[in-house]
Amino acid sequence: MQARVLVIDDDAEMADTVAEFLAGRGFTVECAVGGHAAITVLGQRAFDAVITDLRMDDVDGLDVLAAAHGFDAELPVMVMTAYGSINGALEAIRRGAFHYFTKPFKLEEAATWVERALAERGMRLESRGLRRAVDERTNFRGIVGKSAVMRELYEMVERLSGTTAPVLVTGESGTGKELVAEALHAAGPRAAGPFIAVNCAAISEGLFEAELFGHVRGAFTGAVEARKGLFAEADGGTLFLDEIGEIPVSVQAKLLRVVESASVRPVGGGSERAFDVRIVAATNQDLLQAVKDRRFREDLYYRLNVVAIRVPPLRARREDIPLLIDAFIASVLQRQPDAPARELASESVTWLRELPWPGNVRELRNIVERLLLLARGRTVGLRDVVKVMPETLAGAEASLGELVPLRTMTRRYIAWVLEQTAGNKLKAAQLLGIDASTIYRILARED
């Protein structure tokens, strides 16, 4: 699409000369004779750049500049001025003009500056569009959320998706680490290859090598047929090692050798097989502490932790909870179209948003499904929430029935959180998202 340029001068011949040259360079050009006519045209049509004379009899170039930016704050405006009016040109620059030409000037110079102005305008608009897309994005490859911490996570995934470097995804249980691994895979060049996920905590110590590296027939009792192993199955794609901290120390040295050599020897086999696999590992443990405790090899830790992505807990992004609830409702109703409830009342969503959610997104998903399946009406009210999950709300049902003050309900809920943390006020405050001093103050109040 050709860029539209408006050329303004009270000398019609001068305006036509500039316009004719720019049209020859491929621009769509319109002329306006005088500042008053120019402002009228600017109010009627959109332009991508403006060239205006500075000194005009009816309305000068500074007025045109102000009017142009009134219609479009980032419209590039260039001014033409005689040698004796340099101060006026500098004033135009101070007011936001993109550039000025001193008459007489070469038409080639004017075309070059128009092209430069259009290029910068395009980059600004593209940058703003990308920022707006990130700001408005609520779902990124199955990961739901638009909070600041989630936007940072999306940007990190996008930056790393095109690389082959191993990534260590950390975060509490239930935060969605596997979704992050899937997003890394789906957004990268290996998207057409397999994505193989394994929960290392679910494999018995004696079967680790066979599961990861494969085995030949007869390698051990029960090996009635050969198996490729997960590294071979993931060839050309991504291998996701969840709960990597649970891999036995006896296997870690062999895993390190496989990762470094990009080749694997099946249990009982005599030859190695090369593979092309991106490794994404995940853990909810403090692996550095595990290294200090000699439960995890330091060399393996640094080999897997080339780049780390931290998935935030749900309590650190409470503004995402309503979005997550909507997503889980849609998912449940797709699988359970006959579920009695179809939505959550606003007060129910508000209540759920303020809970500590130690089980994070996984716990919220399970609770939403339970509410939809067990609620009695179409809309899940706050009483329904309390009846369905009394163990989580701890005494709130009685509070609702008694219509007690909110401060009483707050004290009872804080007391329940303290029970879950064995009386540790600092940990309770962290879960609640408040200062420990606030807990002391609330519990000291009289009902």
What attributes characterize this protein structure?
five-stranded parallel β-sheet, extended, 21 helices
Description:
- The strands form 5 sheets. The chain has a 5-stranded parallel beta sheet, sandwiched between helices. Strands 9-10-13-8-14 form a 5-stranded parallel beta sheet.
- It is extended and about 95 Å long.
- It contains 21 helices and 16 strands.
- 33% of the residues are buried.
- Helix 1 links the parallel strand 1 (4-8) and strand 2 (28-32).
- With 447 residues, it is of the alpha/beta class.
- Helix 2 (35-44) packs parallel to helix 3, helix 6 crosses helix 7 (177-186) and helix 19 (406-420) crosses helix 20.
Question: What is the topology?
Answer:
Blueprint: E1 4-8, H1 12-24, E2 28-32, H2 35-44, E3 49-53, H3 61-71, E4 77-82, H4 86-94, E5 99-103, H5 107-136, E6 139-140, E7 143-144, H6 148-161, E8 167-170, H7 177-186, E9 195-199, H8 208-213, H9 230-233, E10 238-242, H10 249-261, E11 263-264, E12 273-274, E13 278-283, H11 287-292, H12 298-304, E14 307-310, H13 321-335, E15 343-344, H14 346-353, H15 360-374, E16 379-380, H16 382-388, H17 390-393, H18 396-402, H19 406-420, H20 425-432, H21 436-444
Helix pairs in contact: 2-3, 6-7, 13-15, 19-20
